[in-house]
Design goal:
The protein has 279 residues and is of the alpha+beta class. The chain has two domains: 160 residues, Jelly Rolls (Sandwich); 104 residues, Orthogonal Bundle (Arc Repressor Mutant, subunit A). The chain has ten helices and eleven strands. It has a six-stranded antiparallel beta sheet with strand order 2-3-10-5-8-11. A five-stranded antiparallel beta sheet has the order 1-4-9-6-7, with no helix packed on it. Strand 6 and strand 7 form a beta hairpin. Helix 2 runs antiparallel to helix 3 and helix 7 crosses helix 9.
């Protein structure tokens, strides 16, 4: 039975059987050029666990072998081979290895201050079922170069390619222009009372077809993605303005402060007032 770890503080547990290869920006200047704080390949076995309450940048994880669980947007997601998951900055996320499983995954964590537009933003998915294998190949290629010749030109190419794959994963809706335009409309009118039927009508598809598209591209339902866009906008307002919480809630489409707070805690891991105090 899966028992989630405590989520009250940042925590790092490896365990005797886990193996990690990590490259830091302080050691490789090419990472800093792309705002990457660190990256690595983990071979995780229980009791491996990571809890990050307010990470400074976007996070990408590509599951290569075995399976583990990732906490994103308030839910523990089972992540198996070939899956990628993404998390925006300053949002609670956590990783745990499944007992009895050897979980191998490649990952990148960016460093993105609040005034920088993050890679994982309002249009980004929660998880995707494509791109993990390529992500792993590139990170393994980077590892071989770093552990070998460390040729500056080759390192530049490997890091640039990895960054390009991260950008592609973070913006999958560009592959379907109708869906892309839909979320631009939603983002520009968050106070509107969006329903599944009105979302589907906007991009001229059935509600069921839109649900399938969103599940495939984002790992969320259409209405879950509306919530995600609203909460990402609310984070920005809490970081950059002194508006009262009631004003922030109303401006992103919530008529009830209680409903807004519950949605915010589920997605971010802390209350809106607690989030503002962390600035």
């Amino acid at each position: 039975m899966f028992i989630p770890p405590p989520l009250l503080t940042d925590s790092t547990v490896d365990g005797a059987r886990s193996r990690r290869w990590v490259l830091e920006a302080k050691d490789c200047s090419e990472l800093a050029v792309r705002h990457m704080a660190r990256l690595g390949i983990d071979e995780a076995q229980a009791p491996y666990c990571r809890v990050r309450l307010q990470p400074a940048g976007s996070f990408f994880l590509a599951s290569l072998e075995g399976e583990g669980r990732v906490l994103l947007e308030g839910r523990w997601q089972k992540i198996g081979p070939g899956m990628m998951c993404l998390a925006p900055p300053r949002v609670l996320n956590a990783l745990v290895a499944t007992p009895g499983q050897r979980w191998v995954f490649a990952w990148v964590r960016y460093d993105e201050p609040s005034w920088v537009s993050p890679l994982v933003g309002a249009s980004s998915p929660l998880r995707v079922r494509a791109g993990a294998e390529e992500f792993g190949h590139v990170l393994r290629g980077l590892r071989r170069e770093w552990d070998g010749e460390r040729d500056a030109a080759q390192l530049h190419h490997w890091v640039s390619l990895l960054h390009g794959l991260a950008l592609r994963a973070a913006r999958p809706w560009h592959s379907d222009s109708r869906v892309g335009r839909l979320w631009e409309v939603v983002a520009n009118d968050l106070a509107h009372d969006w329903k599944l039927s009105s979302l589907a009508a906007r991009c001229h598809v059935s509600a069921e077809h839109l649900r399938r598209l969103c599940r495939r591209e984002f790992g969320r339902t259409p209405m879950e993605h509306v919530t995600y866009i609203r909460i990402r906008k609310a984070q920005g307002l809490l970081e950059t303005t002194e508006h009262k919480l009631e004003h922030v809630a109303a401006s992103v489409g919530y008529r009830s402060n209680d409903v807004f707070t519950r949605a915010f805690v589920r997605c971010v891991g802390v209350t809106p007032s607690g989030y503002r105090q962390r600035r």
